[in-house]
Amino acid sequence: MATDIVYSGAIHPPVTDRVTELQAASIWVKLKKILFFAFSGAFLGTLIWVAGELFELGWLQIAGIGFGAVVALVGIVLAFTGKVAPCPYCGKTVGAGAADSVSGSDNPEHIECDHCFELLVAEYGKVRALNEADVAGKDEIEVMALKDGVWPRECIFCGAVPTRFEEAKVVKPEYAKLLLGAVSVQSGKLRGVPYCDRHSGAVGLNIRDDALRVVFARLDMARRYLAVNTTRKAIKVG
């Protein structure tokens, strides 16, 4: 369905040609990352340890301690090797979040600005906008779902006049709580996804890092969704 599309709509968000330089993170950013991974490792490791205690599995308790230590160690490594750079779109710092990791290697690394949520590529010590060549052959492009977000007034797939509006939804088990014997799920939905008579089901949802994500069939669809939303705040899933 995505190979024969000719977009006929009016939304053409520009792809910036600005390129920014990666640099070492400040000591405060490094400390934030270390503390985040230390607490995350301790929390998840404790869950595994408690599950081992409940089911009287000594090996699982040992695994919980080891898992927590490994997560903390990963955090230290990422804190001292991770890089930051201004976003080519909004100019705010990319890579400074507690869970963010930008290696700055020569291999293309797809990242996302946690301020404007535009999709980027880090490579050769620089950050630039993600373009169509970077996603050639990909069937899914994922961006942050936006709180109080709106949809383009056209078919999200091809730009034609919309004739119907669908709902996208997702339900995801919380496996960490399953370790403690509690049944818990995360869920989310977005209403009003616009389609014409020819297209349907081209938008899905995902949940990652406790945030709702919109999954599109193509990059241009994702960028049109971002373009019509000037206020961009993530939808967090409790």
Topology summary:
Elements (H helix, E strand, L loop, with lengths): L19 E2 L1 E2 L2 H28 L3 H24 L1 E4 L6 E2 L14 E4 L6 E5 L2 E4 L11 E4 L19 E10 L1 H4 L6 E11 L7 E6 L2 E6 L2 H9 L11
Antiparallel strand pairs: 1-7, 2-3, 3-4, 5-6, 6-7, 8-12, 9-10, 11-12
Question: What do these coordinates show?
Answer:
The protein has 238 residues and is of the alpha+beta class. 27% of the residues lie in helices and 25% in strands. It is built from 4 helices and 12 strands; from the N terminus they run ββααβββββββαβββα. It has a 4-stranded antiparallel β-sheet with strand order 1-7-6-5, with no helix packed on it. A 3-stranded antiparallel β-sheet has the order 2-3-4, with no helix packed on it. A 3-stranded antiparallel β-sheet has the order 8-12-11. The radius of gyration is 20 Å and the shape is globular. The two termini are 34 Å apart. The mean pLDDT is 90.
Side-by-side strand order of the widest sheet: 1-7-6-5
Question: What string gives the helices and strands in order?
Answer: EEHHEEEEEEEHEEEH
- Structural classification: alpha+beta
Radius of gyration: 20 Å
Low-confidence stretches: none
User: End-to-end distance, in Å?
Assistant: 34 Å
What's the number of helices? Answer: 4
Write down how many β-strands occur, each being a DSSP E stretch of 2 or more residues: 12
Strand content: 25-35%
